[in-house]
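1st attempt posting a full record on here, be nice pls
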Amino acid sequence: MSSQPDTRVLSTPTPSSRPGVARTEAEVSLLLPSSVPRPAGARGEPHRRGWRVQGPLAFELVGILAELAQALAQAGISLLAVSTFDTDYIFVRAAQAQAAEAAWQAAGWRVVGRGEVGR
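the predicted structure (as tokens):
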């Protein structure tokens, strides 16, 4: 993996900075703060915690999301990943947030604040 010094940092996104909508031919997915009621009839999984990879990340960087996902996979933690042009977001079940941070630490990432991880 090729990286810049600040590419090893994850930070907890604020509700306004979370990516909110993903749309395909088959579905529309919404990422909403838990304080926002789920639309009637919508399926969903509440109580997720999210991290934002600090960016912007150069498009040429390779393997950042894969490395973070691999650490979670080895710990048996499922994730929801969302990518934007500038960065990546990772969401896990809130009950597994501490285990996710521990998995990243074991993989050489460091926790530098509430929800922030870096190398």
